[in-house]
Amino acid sequence: VGGDALIANVALEGTSKAPIDFIVKGEIQNVADFGNLFNLNLKNWPDVAVNIAGGFDRQKITLRKSSIAIDGKNIDLAGEYNWGGVVPNINLNVSADDIVLADMFPGLYVHKKSKPKRKLNVFKDVPLFGEFFVGRNINVTADIKRFVVYRDFSIDDLKLRVGVNNDVARIDLMSSVAGGTLNIGADVDIAPDGNMDVIFAADGKNITVGELLSQLKVPDLISDLPMNLEMYVRANGANLSELMQTITGPVRVYSDGVG
Predict the structure, then answer these.
(1) β-bridge mates for residue 196, sequence order
(2) Digit-coded pLDDT (tens) for 67-125
(3) Would you state the pLDDT for residue 114?
(4) DSSP secondary structure string, the chain?
(5) Which of 3, 144, 191, 203 is deepest in the core (most CB within 10 A)?
């Protein structure tokens, strides 16, 4: 995908001449077309540099010590996709030092220099790819040192575990946010069209209000007050903005410090 910028080397089995190992290096210029192969909507993605090594079997494909780079930021990948059973199985390990959501989905954001005073809109139309998880058993682990969600707002030291079985997902996340900690657990029912019904619990400790607002470029209220957060809510939607608009349930925000 993307012309002659992408180069693949494939090793063949001696007798059957079936491909058994491969190395793919170069740049994917038409990322949306590549995403269509896996039923993923990757519209507006920038060019992606790839360095992928793996192997083929009759029933699975394996990735070994592979990586992709978006806007010069590397994401390391390893895992396998096994379609030999009744339900396909995907196992994937992801690690990265720095991921910026706006680099991955540039069409969702206007560059901050062009409209610095525009209204805060953290979750607008961020896709969740729910349809991809339908009819697949999936186990994903991710370890990311810095994950920039919006403007300068980042989730640090992120450790994510996602398990999907029979269109039901369990998500566990541990992270650092604005000088404090944020732990999240969620149970998700995924409809055939990718819509998600989510039961979501979060526990945040010692999150500094001033640092959080500074990251979000909100100058109206700056405080060193440490904040704690507890929530147990339910939401429904096909993308992140729909989930945020349908949240119902108890949320408790309080502080036991001075600032």
Answers:
(1) 190, 237
(2) 888 877 889 999 999 988 888 999 999 999 988 877 766 655 544 444 445 554 555 66
(3) 45
(4) --GGGEEEEEEE-TTT--EEEEEEEEEES-HHHHHHTTT---TTPPPEEEEEEEEE-SSEEEEEEEEEEETTEEEEEEEEEE-SSSS-EEEEEEEES-EEHHHH-GGG---TTT-TTSPP-SSTT-B--HHHHTT-EEEEEEEEEEEEEETTEEEEEEEEEEEEETTEEEEEEEEEETTEEEEEEEEEEE-TTS-EEEEEEEEEEEEEHHHHHHHTT--S-----EEEEEEEEEEEESBHHHHHHT-BS-EEEE--S--
(5) 144
Q: What is the dihedral of CA 26, 83, 185, 236, to 10 degrees?
A: 90
pLDDT of residue 4: 45
* Tokens read off for 122: 């953290």
The structure tokens listed for 60 are 């699975």
CA atoms within 13 A on the CB side of 234: 3
